[in-house]
């Protein structure tokens, strides 16, 4: 997610963006999170809270501003009389509850042909367990899958994923290509992508007609965590960290927004920041993060092979299905009308599960401008037929924002699986 264009909140606690790996963990104990109704006047709100030590963590449109307020400033903030809704009574307590990981017991034996237990989706998990979970999925689908390593992060962690295929052998069909956890704090995305992967494998093994038709038609290339350094950092130091962990010369601030670093219209103004301390910092040059070097090379290999039929970059939050383009609010993909039909029907299918409503449309005009984003590159440079961002739960003032309760993992995943079954059968 992105801060409102022009809404620069230079606030005391926002310096968390410059923390080093040696700093103690940021707990957010006693912080209270609010959604402020801006009524399209964000600058007025900015002026009113300028002397409050607020941490903005989701400013995704002109209608509201989500902020976390430390205990010592809550009374001062509430006296401003702003129109607010409480998102978290105690952000630190909610983070602690969310971070109570269930133990994962890998069978550790590739000869045991049994998928991991679905209880995996009852809680969030440590980074190392996510990697083991993917290994276990692959080991229990050996004839139709392989582990893939798209490359390495700045910290040397593997961009680990899985390649699935059906009849005809591996690499023989157009690609379905999924990314999760591009932004480190968006934990729900890795869980949802893993659930979709699980359902593809389980359905194929059970001869589910819908799943077999999908896997026999496409090769799936799935990377559940493409920002492993940032994700690991959210579990050890700062739950609300967004970027990667790459230092920059001349700045004490750490990290680049990987989803502003793709080499497609990267140089255009307005869709990213040139400030290394910004959450949307785009880097010194297009594609200059280690993660992007790896992702671009991997993407280009898929594009030059059998082509990319569908790309989805999973994010949270807001409940959006976002189509190309992000760099220009008047730009459209050549097959825009067809993509709008697919997106509308996907949103309708998602809503049939729990009534969750997804807004859909071109990224820039529906949400905000982005330059150097994955769907723009996949569409404009890699030639993907369909390339979307999907922003997961929640949307309204309730639900947890980035700190989504574990009880919402399965509903989020199930509704996306139902939406994907429609999309994959019709794309």
From TrEMBL:
Its keywords, alphabetically, are: Carboxypeptidase, Hydrolase, Metalloprotease, Protease, Secreted, Signal, Virulence, Zinc, Zymogen
Q: Name one GO molecular function term.
A: zinc ion binding
SMART domains (UniProt xref) = Zn_pept (SM00631)
Show the InterPro entries listed in the entry: Peptidase_M14 (IPR000834)
Q: Which cofactor does it need?
A: Zn(2+)
Q: Name one GO biological process term.
A: proteolysis
**Peptidase M14 domain boundaries:** 123-427
Q: Does the keyword Transport apply?
A: no
Q: Which domain of life is it from?
A: Eukaryota
- Per its database record, what is this protein's job? Extracellular metalloprotease that contributes to pathogenicity.
What's the protein name?
Metallocarboxypeptidase A
The organism encoding this protein is: Colletotrichum gloeosporioides (Anthracnose fungus)
């Amino acid at each position: 997610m992105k801060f409102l264009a022009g809404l620069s909140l230079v606030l005391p606690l926002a310096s968390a963006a410059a923390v080093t790996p040696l700093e103690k963990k940021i707990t957010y104990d006693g912080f209270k999170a609010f959604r402020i109704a801006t009524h399209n006047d964000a600058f007025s709100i900015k002026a009113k809270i300028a002397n409050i030590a607020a941490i903005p963590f989701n400013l995704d449109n002109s209608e509201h501003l989500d902020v976390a307020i430390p205990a010592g400033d809550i009374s001062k903030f509430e006296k401003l009389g702003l129109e607010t809704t409480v998102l978290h009574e105690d952000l630190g307590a909610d983070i602690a509850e969310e971070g109570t990981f269930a133990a994962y017991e890998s069978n550790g034996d590739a000869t045991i042909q049994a998928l991991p237990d679905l209880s995996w989706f009852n809680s969030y998990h440590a980074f190392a367990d996510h990697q083991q979970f993917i290994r276990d999925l692959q080991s229990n689908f050996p004839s139709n899958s392989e582990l893939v390593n798209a490359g390495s992060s700045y910290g040397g962690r593997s961009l680990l994923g899985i390649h699935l295929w059906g009849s005809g052998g591996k690499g023989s069909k157009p690609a379905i290509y999924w990314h999760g956890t591009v932004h480190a704090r968006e934990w729900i995305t890795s869980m949802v992508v893993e659930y979709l992967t699980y359902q593809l494998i389980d359905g194929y093994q059970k001869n589910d007609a819908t799943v077999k038709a999908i896997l026999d038609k496409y090769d799936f290339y799935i990377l559940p965590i493409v920002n492993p350094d940032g994700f690991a950092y959210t579990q050890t130091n700062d739950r609300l960290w967004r970027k990667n962990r790459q230092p920059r010369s001349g700045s004490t601030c750490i990290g680049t927004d990987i989803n502003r670093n793709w080499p497609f219209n990267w140089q255009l103004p307005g869709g990213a920041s040139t400030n290394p301390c910004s959450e949307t910092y785009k880097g010194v040059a297009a594609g200059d993060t280690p993660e992007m070097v790896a992702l671009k090379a991997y993407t280009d290999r898929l594009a030059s092979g059998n082509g990319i039929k569908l790309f989805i970059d999973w994010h949270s939050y807001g409940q959006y299905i976002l189509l190309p383009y992000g760099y220009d609010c008047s730009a459209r993909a050549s097959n825009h009308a067809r993509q709008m039909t697919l997106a509308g029907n996907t949103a309708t299918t998602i809503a049939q599960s729990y009534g969750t409503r997804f807004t859909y449309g071109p990224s820039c005009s529906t949400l905000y401008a982005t330059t150097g984003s994955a769907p723009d590159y996949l569409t404009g440079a890699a030639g993907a037929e369909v390339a979307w961002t999907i922003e997961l739960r929640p949307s309204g003032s309730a639900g947890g924002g980035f700190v989504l309760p574990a009880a919402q993992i399965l509903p989020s995943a199930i509704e996306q699986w139902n939406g994907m079954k429609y999309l994959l059968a019709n794309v």
